[in-house]
Design a protein that fits this description.
It is built from 19 helices and 7 strands. By secondary structure, it is α/β, with parallel strands linked by helices. The chain folds into 4 domains: 99 residues, YqgF/RNase H-like domain (Nucleotidyltransferase, domain 5), CATH 3.30.420.140; 121 residues, Helix Hairpins; 137 residues, no CATH class; 33 residues, no CATH class. Helix 11 runs parallel beside helix 12 and helix 15 packs across helix 17.
């Protein structure tokens, strides 16, 4: 009985595979021993790598996305004219057996030759720069939050229960009290005088909460953490200025972005961790060429910034369908079917910053009282619980935003959601109209005719 030979079609005949390492990269251009070489991680090594690949007439290269070690060699090879794809490590897992760097790079080369590898999403160079600033800012915010927790701990150990009488110990009142305390003021009554008029607790209760027990060791630690906090806030301000400057330059150099006009949204609350002294509503409309993402209830500054920094306008257009986009975000169920039956349909594990931003917006939508998206959230919440409702609403938001940005359409919900300020304005207008009809008021009775004549003369 003759043996059957199964052959696969060669899709990329001039392919190479690179196994990325921290101190060296193993490169394979074939399956023989002489087709594998090791290169270092210096620029000089990249030059030798490029010459060697061109010598073997390589045109396309696949490499694993290992940490951040791939970024320099990836950028260099792209600049040299090679078609380089970045591959998820899950796609390049070899069969069980001995695992070596040589076998890994040859396995990647074989898979890429047969066209069995798909490229990971990579943003354009401009978006990549914005992402670096944005992620750096988020890291500083985390450090700042950890510092505030330590300050709260030391204040509590000194019997200064500032966390009980104010909601935020680094708010207007908290900052003034901590600054005065570090400057040498230890009296609770004197410290309580820094109370802001919006604080619900009376000055007497604040004074009772601020009775220093005399622990100098905790006082020293508090001073150190306070200096760290101020330093981190200064870094955040500097980063915000760089982000604002970069976004303005991008908009300034594009006429299609520069000429867009955004509607004011005073009803949208600005989070304290949002980019400071920056109108993200205006920048978002200009950056996305007239598409107003903040018209969607639940979408705020952080959501808009996440889309600008993590994927960009050109990046989201790389996804051909909304299904591809939600699958990339890991918001689409991963259906496992066998024998015609669905065995499971759970969301894939893993998360990214854009998915987190969408889930946070979905959580805000769940706290609203009405609206099209809130109705959807409540239906899912009633059937399957809040966690599932947040994921489902985040996916729905992703589909809506994909359609808006790729097709250039504005948000048009079946039921328009009105914010509190908008409702108040409608009520006021309605009340004025009723009074005009009730008392039969005419324009000349209130001087409107004179105002109109004056404006015409001007």
């Amino acid at each position: 009985m003759s043996k059957k030979h199964v052959s696969l079609e060669v899709v990329n005949p001039n392919a190479a595979g690179i196994d990325i390492g921290s101190r060296s990269h193993w490169v394979a251009v074939g399956q023989d021993a002489q087709d594998v070489r090791e290169f270092g991680v210096y620029t000089e090594d990249y030059q030798k790598l490029s010459v060697w690949l061109k010598k073997h007439q390589v045109t396309t290269i696949a490499m694993e996305s290992t940490g951040t070690y791939w970024q320099n060699v990836f950028s260099y090879l792209v600049a040299e004219g090679f078609d380089v794809i970045l591959v998820n490590g899950r796609q390049t897992k070899n069969i069980k057996g001995k695992k070596t760097d040589i076998k890994d790079c040859q396995w990647i080369q074989k898979l890429h030759t047969l066209g069995l590898l798909s490229s990971s999403f990579l943003p354009d160079s401009t978006t990549d720069v914005i992402r670096t600033y944005s992620r750096h800012r988020q890291n500083i915010l985390k450090q700042s939050g950890a510092t505030v927790q330590k300050m709260q701990k030391y204040l509590r150990l000194m019997n200064l229960r500032l966390d009980v009488v104010v909601n935020d110990i680094v708010g207007l009142t908290g900052k003034k009290i901590i600054t005065a305390f570090i400057a040498g003021e230890k009296s609770g009554k004197e410290l309580a005088k820094h109370r802001h008029y919006n604080i619900r607790k009376p000055e007497e209760e604040i004074a009772k909460a601020l009775q220093y027990n005399g622990r100098e060791d905790y006082f020293f630690a508090l001073k150190q953490e306070w200096k760290t906090y101020l330093h981190l806030q200064k870094q955040i301000d500097e980063t915000d200025k760089e982000i604002k400057k970069l976004l303005k330059n991008i908009i300034k150099n594009d006429d299609n972005k520069k000429n867009q006009i955004a509607k004011k949204k005073d009803y949208k609350r600005k989070n304290k961790n949002a980019i400071r002294n920056t109108d993200m509503n205006k920048i978002g409309v200009q950056y996305f060429e007239g598409i107003d993402l903040m018209a969607i209830e639940g979408v705020n500054d952080a959501t808009v910034m996440a889309f600008i920094s993590e994927i960009g306008l050109e990046g989201i257009k790389k996804f051909k369908t909304a299904k591809e986009f939600t699958a990339w975000l890991r918001l689409a169920p991963n259906n496992k079917i066998s024998g015609g039956k669905v065995l499971s349909h759970h969301l894939p594990k893993g998360s990214n910053r854009l998915k987190i931003a969408l889930r946070q917006s979905a959580n805000v939508i769940g706290n609203l009282k009405e609206g099209h998206l809130n109705n959807f959230f409540r239906r899912i919440n009633y059937k399957k619980g809040r966690a599932t409702a947040i994921s489902a609403t985040a996916r729905k938001l992703a589909v809506i935003i994909w359609n808006m940005l790729t097709k250039g359409v504005q948000y048009q919900p079946p039921i328009e959601y009105l914010f509190l300020d908008q409702k108040r304005k409608l009520r006021l207008v309605s009340r004025i109209r009723k009074n005009i009809a009730k008392f039969d008021i005419k324009p000349q009775d209130v001087g409107f005719d004179k105002m109109l004549n004056t404006s015409v003369e001007i």
